[in-house]
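Researcher: I'm preparing a figure for a lab meeting and need a structural model of a single chain. I don't have an experimental structure, so a prediction will have to do for now. The sequence is pasted below. Please return the structure as tokens so I can convert it later.
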Amino acid sequence: MNTSTAQPVTLSDVTAAFEEVYPPRWAASWDAVGLICGDPAQTVEKILFAVDPVDAVVDEAVTWGADLVITHHPLMLRGVTSVAADTPKGRIVHRLIRSGVALYTAHTNADTAAPGVSDALARAVGLTGPLRPLEPDTTDPEGRRGIGRIGELDEPLVLRDFAERVARGLPATAGGIRVAGDLDRLISTVAVSGGAGDSLLGAARAAGVDAYVTSDLRHHPASEFIEEPGGPALVDTAHFASEWPWLEDGAARLSDALGRTGGPNGANVEIRVSTTVTDAWSRTFQRV
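Model: Understood. Here is the structure written out token by token.
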């Protein structure tokens, strides 16, 4: 078939293909996923994957000529009563619409997917072999979906060396990597959870892992956790960094889905992973 006469890929085609991979019904009840802005009938030739729907990502999308931005974090997670352009969220919405760029969010549906956000994090920090959920999704009869993952290192490492591996495997951020525990402790079995993960500290302890890698650990929960003997060491990363590895996997899975379902032009849609660091922190200072 001559692809020059084929129907173009529409935003509706893309969202349908993407939702085969990351169904919105897998999202938590409190979440806000799906199409945020954009005309389902508009043509899509370029898609940008990013963690956060912020100005810097919109800049990248507009400069590249993207028709669609797919982000992990929602722009409208909590209710708003206005999208006036003098508010941060409103400004993003106006910029996207003026530029003809659609915005789509895959959040907790991508977290719980198998493979999903934590699978990508697990591979980035060196876990090999089969992975299992840290907190399984009880609605999944196969037991593969869920929040977080547990896996093994290819060979044991002491905590200081494992933390260095985590740092090498993730994007550099101002805050870097924080570690709690004996740096000479031997690490073999590891739990990970992309994004804020102190709600799963109990699950990590119950799983009997040697280390738990996540983000946004608060002082009091982490302090109390470490004071109780027998639990895993903690490796705390920047929130953005722990979720960034998923972008490549999400982009690849969408590309495959479009090749199957997007018609003759589906495989020709160009997909790019954003290299913009959208971590909220710009620098750290230490007393000297």
